[in-house]
Each structure stands twice: as structure tokens, then as C-alpha cells.
Amino acid sequence: MITRRKLLVLLPAAAFAWKFVLAGTPEMAPNYNRSEHWWGMLLDIDKCIGCGNCVRACALENNVPEGYFRTWVERYHVSDWHQESPQVESPNGGKDGFSPGAAVGGKNFFVPKMCNHCADSPCTQVCPVGATFHTPDGVVLVDETYCLGCRYCIQACPYGCRFLHPVSRTAQKCSLCYHRITKGLTTACCESCPSGARQLADLKNPADPIHEFLKTHSVQVLKPHLATGAKAYYHDLDASVR
Amino acid sequence: MTVPVEGFMYPNEVELQWSVLIVVYPFVTGLVAGAFILASLERIFHVVAVRPTYRLALLTALAFLLVAPLPLQLHLGRPERSLEMYLTPHRSSAMAMFGFVYLWYLMAVLLLEVWLEYRHEIVLLSQNTKGWKRLLYRAITLGSSNISEGALRVDDRVGWVVTLIGIPSAFLLHGYVGFIFGSVKANPWWSSPMMPVVFLFSAMVSGIAMVLLLYMAMMKIHRLPIDMRCVDTVAQYLLYIFIIDFSLEMLDLIQRIYEADESFRSLDFLLHTRLFFSQIVLQIALGTVVPIVTLGLIQIFPVPEKLRRIAYAACGCLTIIGIFAMRWNVVIGGQLFSKSFLGYTTYKLDLISREGELVAAGLLILPFIILAVLIRILPPWPERQPTTGD
Question: How far is residue B284's CA from residue B249's CA, in Å, rounded to a whole number?
């Protein structure tokens, strides 16, 4: 027979066990139906001014350790004669902005980078325990309570978006601010972008302006030959961008 | 700590993720697979000349296999969660299969084959020894003390079947390690269907060279005569497999050079700079060309026995160094360039850290200590085996 004393012992044990049952289940928000969304991001290279607001906002919002990046900004300088060998820099991930460029001639532009939340993500495929997983609404997340820290996912990501957190010793990456978007907010990087270079896109929402944009503009994903199903859509992406 | 970077690396790429311990892992599993394949030559393919190395090859494979998971365990960010790979494996992950492939090879192949091979002696030792040794041998008889002619015949037959299953299992074990790297499409240095095959043949090369070296060293230590027919045959097999291995590796390299895809400039740069010593000097020149030429010359020209022994020992050592260099070039080399192909980073090997030089050296020495213990418990040579006493 279960006495009150036994119940007091059993309940925390059951709660602890439930935590493991829930491993791989993303944080839920009330009134949020995951099957009604399919998230991606629109990144407009023409609009990015390299201010680094997005990098700072992301670091603050997600407590990203110094020297590691869930998002970063690269500055490209492409000379007319060396289209395939651009000069690229991203000092401190562009977090502190960029100093005036010394390069003259050719073209200069900024490229914001982040996890591409690929529909066929290689990082999810290789995770030996399923700690990296796809949510039904198209976001790739890491369950830090489950990750072994084997770093196979970091090797498998073609975009260099993952790192091993120096304290938790588990893999980390952009979560597309899942804790915010499931509550009807936008991501920290989009929120802080002064030029609208980053726009959260819900591809399942017919009212989302992304649909109009995709119809009327040419967009590209990074490294399309790898067929990862990347959902970070770049407008005006130069062929020199890697 | 600031890592010297040349050109542009994605900001999260500067730090290498897989350290020297991940170099040790394929090196050790390669030795396991190679030693087992050598053992199977006698058992399945009836190459009688290599019989003196049969038991040593089995014990070598076992000693190295017992150490194989340690570098992985030490490398994990959260080693206390490693059992999750067994409990909740992710079916699409090649790495998730490690535990199952490992356990299959250890329990269903190697331990079983060693036990069947030694069961006769184990039973005799459990009867003829005293004290803790008697207890130990009695325990490892696993309660099976029937050593009648019929029972031994069954042991032999079952052992044959286990070896037969063992050959594809050894291929699976090391081919799988190659697949771990070969299936990473994000990394052009790794991504190649040739990778499992190259890993497999290099494994055979390293395992055969290791058993050759160990056999000659053991004979010297125990002041027993070296069976030259045996070492000549082992050296011959080493040469044949080495030629296949080298041809495959060169085919892969030539194809990359000829194709010259977008990653080629990065790989070419590394071969001329950071990997020049480990790839061109150690792996290709000293670790492959010199042993192949030496072993080849021995096949063509009559060489005195003493000189042959010295040449085999030198070739064995160079081969082992060359194969270790090959693992280094794959694992470390594959992380030195950016996936943007626009820059290069540096790997700094710590002396004392969880993934440092001392730990790696310890993991490379540990199998020899285990092998020494195994040889004391289960002597591989008839001269050191007990008499029946009846």
C-alpha cells in the first residue's frame, strides 16, 4: 500500500523519470500548434549593414559564451579578377561591427550567417543518440540534457554553425529563438536588425510576407549542391559566398 | 588561447573538434581487424606457414580491442552519458552503431574464438595449477571441462565457423570506422566512398605488421628460434596487401588532383605545408614506399636470413608509423581547413590534458600491457604450454 510518505518519495522520482521520457521534446508554449508552422529565415544581403546588432542580441538572449557564435556576420571583398577567391573577415563574429575596409575596387558586402535549419540536416542524421532533432515546425534543436558531446554533428554541419559549449560540454547552435517564436515573438536577431536584413519566415502561414517575396525575388541557399534542404534563404547572394 | 589562423575560417571552426584521441581510435581498431585477418589466414585459408603467429594474432587483436573504446570515452564532452548510445541509439547515425559493432566483435567473435582455441589448455591448467591460478583457470573454463577427443573436434569445428563469421565482422568493424569519416559530406577530405575500403586495407597492413613485429620480439625475449618460413610468409602477405592499399590511396589522391574540385586548392595547400611531413614524408615515403620496395626486393633477390630479419623489423616499424601518420592525416588534416575553403587553422597538441599527448601515449602503451598479461595467462607458444599430466 502506498503511504503518504512513500508517495512523497515516489513523486519526485516519477518527475525525474518523466524528464527523460520528454528528452527530445521541445519546450511547449500554450496555444501554439506546431503543425501549423514551418519556420525559416530570409536574409537580405543588400540590406545588411554589418552593425553586429544581431550577433550581440543573440549572445544576450541565448547566453552565448564569449568566442562562440550562434550567428555571425562576414564581410566579403570580391575583386573583379578573383571572383573565386574573395577576401573574407569576421572579427569576433562581427559582434563589434567592422572597421572601415582598406580594400578598394571590386565589391564589398556583408553576409549574416546562422544555422540553416535544414529539412534534411546532416547534423541530425549523425547524432548517435538523437539529441539533435527536428521539431515538427521545421526547427533543428539540441537537447542539452541528452547530448554526449561527441561533436560528430559539428563535423557534419557544412556551414560551421555548431560549437561545443565550453561549460556544459554539449553541442550548441542557433535555436531560431524557439522559446520566443512559439510565443508569437520573432527571433532576437530579427528583432534587433535595424535594416530588416533578417526576417523570420513561416512558410506554412499564407499571410506571411515571405510568400510574396519568394514570388518576386530571386533567392538562393548556401551550398545547394549538398542538398541539405537549407531554410536560410538569401536574397542577392553572390556566387563567391561560401 | 589564440589559435594561429591563416585566411578565413568560420568563427566556430577555429578550434579543432576531434583531437589526437580520435587518431588513436581508428589506429587501434585497425590493428584489431588486421591482426584478426592474419589469424584467419591459417584457420580458414589453411596457410600453414603462419601457424606460429595464430594465437599471438588473436591475443593481439583482443588486447587492442579492449582498449578501442577508451579514446572515444575520454573524448566525449559528457562521458557519463556514453551508455545512452546503447540505450537510445539513433538509427540514422553511423556512430550509434559503434557499440553494437564493437560488442558483436568482442563477444561473438574474438572472445569466443580465443576461448575455443585455448579451452583444452585452460582445462588442463585448471587441473594442474594451484592457488589463485587454479581459481582463475577454473573460472574461465566456464564450467566446460570436457576435453575428450570428440569435444575438441567440436571446438575446432565451431572455432572454424566463428573465424568464418569473424572475417566479415573484422571488415565491418574497420570498414565502419572508415564510413564514419567517409559519410561526412560537409568535409571533402573525408567524404569519399573509397574511405571504408582504404581504411580496411590499411588496417590489414597495420595489423599484419604489428603481429610480425610482436612475433619476432617475443621470440627474441623468450630466446626461442624465429620460424623464418613463418615470417617470410607473413612478410609476403604484408607486401601484397600493402600494394593494394597503396594503389587505392594513390588512386584516391590522383583522382582528387585530376578532378581539382572546389576543395582542391585547400587540400593541395595542406599537402605542401602543414601536412607535408606527416603525409608526404612519414605516410607515403617512409611509411609506404620504403617498406614496399624493401619487401619487394627481398622477394626478388636472395637475402641472408639475418638481414631479412632486420629488414622485416625495420619495415614493420615504418609501416606502423606510416599507418599512424595516415590516421593523423585523415582525422587532423581533415579539420585544418575551413569548410569555406578560404582558410586554415592549426592543431596544437597539449602535453597534459584529457585529450593530450600523455593520454594518447598511455592509450597506445596500454594494449601492450594487456597483451603481456594475456600472454602470461594464455601462453601462445607450445614450449610454454603445460603437459597434459595424464
Answer: 10
Chain B residues within an 8 Å CB radius of A160: 9-13, 338-340
CA distance B375 to A167: 43
Chain A contact for B95 (CB, 8 A cutoff): yes
Angle, CA A49 vertex, CA A60 and CA A84 arms, to 5°: 110
What's chain A's average pLDDT? 92
Say if CB B32 and CB B65 are below 8 A apart: yes
Contact across the interface for B10 and A151, Cβ inside 8 Å: no
Question: Is A148–B84 a contact, with Cβ atoms under 8 angstroms apart?
Answer: yes
| B87, burial (CB in 10 Å: exposed 0-12, middle 13-18, buried 19+) | exposed
Say yes or no to pLDDT of B387 above 50: no
| Residues B90-116 as b or e (16 or more Cβ within 10 Å = b) | beebbbbbbbebbebbbeebbebbbbb
Low-confidence stretches of chain A (pLDDT beneath 70): 1, 16-28, 102-103
Q: How far is CA A7 from the centre of its chain?
A: 43
- Selected for mutation to probe chain A from B10, B22, B342 (highest A CB count within 10 Å) is B10
Selection from B102, B147, B158, B99 nearest residue B125 by Cα: B147
Contact B199, B175 (CB under 8 A): yes
ipTM score over 0.85, yes or no: yes
Q: Where are the domains of chain A?
A: 38-235
Nearest CA distance, A4 vs chain B (angstrom): 33
In tens, the pLDDT along B338-354 reads: 999 999 999 999 899 88
Q: Report d(CA B122, CA B125) in Å as an integer.
A: 5
Q: Which of A97-111, B49-63, B156-170, B276-290 has the lowest mean pLDDT?
A: A97-111
Domain boundaries, chain B: 15-74+95-248+255-380
Are B186 and A164 an interchain contact pair (Cβ–Cβ within 8 Å)? no
Distance of CA A93 to the CA centre of its chain: 14
Judged by CB atoms closer than 8 Å, whether chains meet at B8 and A164 is answered as no
Provide the 8-state DSSP code for B52: G
Q: Report residue B390's pLDDT band, with 50, 70 and 90 as the boundaries.
A: very low
Q: Read off the pLDDT of each residue in B8-36 and give the average, rounded to a whole number.
A: 96
Mutation target among B75, B76, B90 for the A interface, most CBs of A within 10 A: B90
- Give pLDDT, residue B388: 44
Question: Looking at domain A38-235, which of 3.90.228.20, 3.30.70.20, 3.40.50.300, 3.30.379.10 is its CATH number?
Answer: 3.30.70.20
**Subunit contact B75:A150, Cβ cutoff 8 A:** yes
**How far is C-alpha B278 from the chain's CA centre?**
19
Q: CA quadruple B345, B349, B350, B353: dihedral positive or negative?
A: positive
Q: Kindly determine whether residue A154 and residue B338, on different chains, have CB atoms separated by under 8 Å.
A: no
Across the A:B interface, residue pairs with CB atoms under 8 Å apart total 123
Question: Do B18 and A155 contact (CB within 8 A), yes or no?
Answer: yes
CB A45 within 8 A of CB A235: yes
* B264 and chain A in contact, CB less than 8 A: no
pLDDT tens-digit readout, A5-30 = 777 778 877 776 665 555 556 666 77
